[in-house]
Amino acid sequence: MGASEEELGPIDVLVIGYPPGAPMTGEAIPILLGLVNRGIVRVLDACFVRKAADGSVSGLDPAELDPATAGDLAELAGASTGMLNDDDVALVAAEIEPSSAAVMIVYENRWAAPFAAAVRRNGGVLIANQRIGVQELLDALDAAEAAA
User: Fold this and answer.
1) CA–CA separation, 50 and 98 (whole Å)
2) Beta partners for 16?
3) Is this prediction's pTM over 0.85?
4) More confident residue, 131 or 100
5) Does the CA dihedral 96-103-35-68 come out positive or negative?
6) Residue 72 to residue 70: CA distance in whole angstroms
């Protein structure tokens, strides 16, 4: 990786499931690659999980996918720091149903690296971190509007 702790931004793990019959058009991958190309995020690991109709599971590096069907997902080939492993594949596989798939992506929020480094240099430590879901935010905004 070559980056020191001083230069790292927050790291997130994203798991996106595709239930049986989902079109999986690949529309989101060029958007992710655009974020990578602009230096906003850096993909550290990527793994595609496939659960067959019989329940058998395979975890695949994007390099192992057929480019004709994987599309731009193949551009994440080789993104591997070793953070994702067979245990992670098994955890994801347990959450998806047969005839479905998921993609796991570990990425660094490079946009936040200068801020995070400044916090660390000044003795700050992360106490808590939480994501707020889109629906949760929309519900809160609706409630605030109704109360106004």
Assistant:
1) 9
2) 103
3) no
4) 100
5) negative
6) 6
